[in-house]
Amino acid sequence: MAGRQAVKVYLDLLSQPCRALLIFLKHNKIPHTVELIALRKGQQKTPEFTKLNPMQKVPTKLDICGFKNCNYCYYDAILKYLATTYNVPDHWYPKLPEKRARVDEYTAWHHVNTRMHASTVFLQEVIFPMMGQPTNPAKFEKALADLNGTLDMLENMFLKRQPFLCGDEISLADLLAVCELMQPLCSGRDILKDRPKLLSWRSRVQSALSDSFDEAHSVVYQIREKFTAKL
Fold first, then answer.
1. Residue of 107, 196, 90, 216 lying closest to 151 (CA atoms)
2. How many helices (H) and strands (E) does the chain have?
3. Given CA atoms 99, 100, 103, 104 in this order, what sign does their dihedral have?
4. CA quadruple 136, 139, 140, 143: dihedral, nearest 10
5. Is residue 165 within 8 Å of 106, Cβ to Cβ?
6. What is the pLDDT along the chain (231 residues), one digit of tens a residue?
7. Where does the record place the GST N-terminal domain (predicted)?
8. Distance between CA atoms of 57 and 44, rounded to whole angstroms?
């Protein structure tokens, strides 16, 4: 990685994919600079940011070549680009096609399962009340039920008898998943507390990521303290 100019990333650390990207950069010691974009203030809609990313979404990445990976729906593409461009350990996004396909399988499934359902719980329980909108009880209960179904799949389809979602070592799949499943903690809701298999997995992921995990999730812990203090 010597001689490379730092990658510039635009992030809001309340965003789960943004945290995943920051953890990956820090943990793998990829040179980078961060510009924080506050979505709650609409900073992604400024003319300056819109020039960088017409989608007005984060994370956004801009590197020395001017390569932009802007589409928020493809945040995993930013991670895969970095994993294949920089000299990071192979377990993140393996070169062997059979192993890589397992990571790709999870990331394709992730968008409309782990991400969708954990995000909906967070929106209903935290964001909407913060914006002065009441939680919709029916939608909230459905979101919890959908999320429980997803957690069942994580345990029974992906983890099975292996320590990480795609094998014996941590991968991009685990990184994306853990950041999503941490999000409901903002309200003090630990969705894994009655699931020992997933709790053990989260501990392994957190241990593998060391300090970068807690640093990136400091905003989640801060919101949890404020939210639970009001209860």
1. 196
2. 11, 3
3. negative
4. -160
5. yes
6. 445 677 888 888 888 998 999 999 999 999 988 877 755 655 555 666 666 665 555 555 554 444 444 444 467 888 998 999 899 999 999 999 999 999 999 999 999 999 999 999 999 998 888 878 888 899 999 999 999 999 999 999 999 889 999 999 999 999 999 999 999 999 999 999 999 999 999 999 999 999 999 999 999 999 999 888 876
7. 5-90
8. 6
Spatial distance between the Cα atoms of 25 and 115, rounded to a whole number of angstroms? 21
* CATH among 3.30.70.1130, 3.40.50.10230, 3.10.620.30, 3.40.30.10 for 7-88: 3.40.30.10
Say how many C-beta atoms besides its own lie within 10 A of residue 111's C-beta: 14
Contact in structure between 21 and 11 (CB atoms under 8 Å): yes
Kindly report whether the global pTM for this prediction surpasses the value 0.90: no
Q: Fold identical between 7-88 and 97-229?
A: no
Question: Interior CA angle at 18 toward 222 and 176, to 5°?
Answer: 100
Tell me which residue of 68, 80, 67, 89 sits closest to 17, measured CA to CA.
80
Within a 13 Å sphere around the CA of 29, how many CA atoms are in the beta-carbon half? 5
Write out the two tokens for 178: 């853990």
- Coil, helix or strand at residue 62: strand
